[in-house]
């Protein structure tokens, strides 16, 4: 059986297949690359019309990454999917507290999800950082609350939780916010690979070398 074996050739061919589905969306070069990586990660061209990127999101995230910012995630799957070696080359790290025993204890005591408790535990560390949420709508709702009530100001929020309970609503609220740039996907679609792919796409816009 004859098939493409080289990773970059596979990626390049994938981008060629995706390209026609982005026509008519009036995307700039950076947006096109982020859209393409999201669609590539999902294996689903139906993402094209439902991706939402704030006009300042990519540039704000790039600036933060180049300054060595950290990235805070809701679940280990997002943390695992982000190219940590690439992020480290800029001086940043990725953190997730969802499995932390103290966070779990707080979640039980307060009757909230661990992902919510994790975001509260990060607190002011989220200022100037990038928040990447790919699984838990409750984490995104909590970050939005912290932005409104606590004055937390991440450089950007990649909020793409997946599912049928709260996911669409949380992403709709993110898209309505006027305080923090965002990347999201309307509706129930999303997930950890999509959030991680968004972060990686932004890093590759800065430096496309892979390691």
How are the elements arranged and paired?
Blueprint: H1 7-18, H2 29-42, E1 51-53, H3 57-66, E2 71-73, H4 76-81, H5 84-90, E3 94-96, H6 101-110, H7 114-122, E4 130-133, H8 137-150, E5 156-159, H9 167-176, E6 182-185, H10 192-206
Parallel strand pairs: 2-3, 2-4, 4-5, 5-6
Antiparallel strand pairs: 1-6
Structure description:
The chain has 211 residues and is α/β, with parallel strands linked by helices. It has one domain (50-206): Cobalamin biosynthesis CobH/CbiC, precorrin-8X methylmutase (Rossmann fold), CATH 3.40.50. It has helices at residues 7-18, 29-42, 57-66, 76-81, 84-90, 101-110, 114-122, 137-150, 167-176, 192-206, and strands spanning 51-53, 71-73, 94-96, 130-133, 156-159, 182-185. It has a 6-stranded mixed beta sheet, with helices on both faces. Helix 8 links the parallel strand 4 (130-133) and strand 5. Helix 6 packs across helix 7 (114-122). It is globular and about 55 Å long. It starts with 6 loop residues before the first helix and ends in a 5-residue tail after the last helix.
């Amino acid at each position: 059986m004859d098939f493409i074996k080289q990773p970059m050739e596979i990626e390049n061919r994938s981008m060629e297949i995706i390209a026609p589905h982005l026509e008519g969306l009036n995307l700039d070069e950076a947006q096109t690359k982020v859209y393409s990586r999201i669609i590539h990660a999902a294996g689903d061209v139906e993402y094209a019309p439902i991706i939402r990127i704030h006009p300042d999101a990519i540039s704000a995230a790039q600036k933060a990454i180049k300054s060595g910012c950290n990235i805070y995630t809701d679940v280990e799957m997002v943390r695992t999917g982000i190219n940590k070696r690439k992020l480290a080359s800029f001086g940043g790290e990725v953190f997730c507290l969802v499995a932390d025993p103290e966070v779990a204890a707080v979640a039980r005591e307060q009757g909230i999800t661990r992902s919510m408790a994790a975001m509260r535990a990060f607190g002011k560390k989220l200022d100037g950082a990038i928040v990447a949420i790919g699984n838990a709508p409750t984490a995104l709702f909590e970050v939005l609350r912290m932005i409104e009530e606590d004055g937390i100001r991440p450089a950007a929020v990649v909020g793409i939780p997946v599912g049928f309970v709260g996911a669409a609503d949380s992403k709709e609220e993110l898209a309505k916010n006027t305080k923090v740039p965002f990347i999201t996907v309307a509706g129930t679609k999303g997930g950890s690979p999509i959030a991680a792919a968004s972060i990686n796409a932004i890093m590759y816009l800065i430096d496309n070398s892979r390691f």
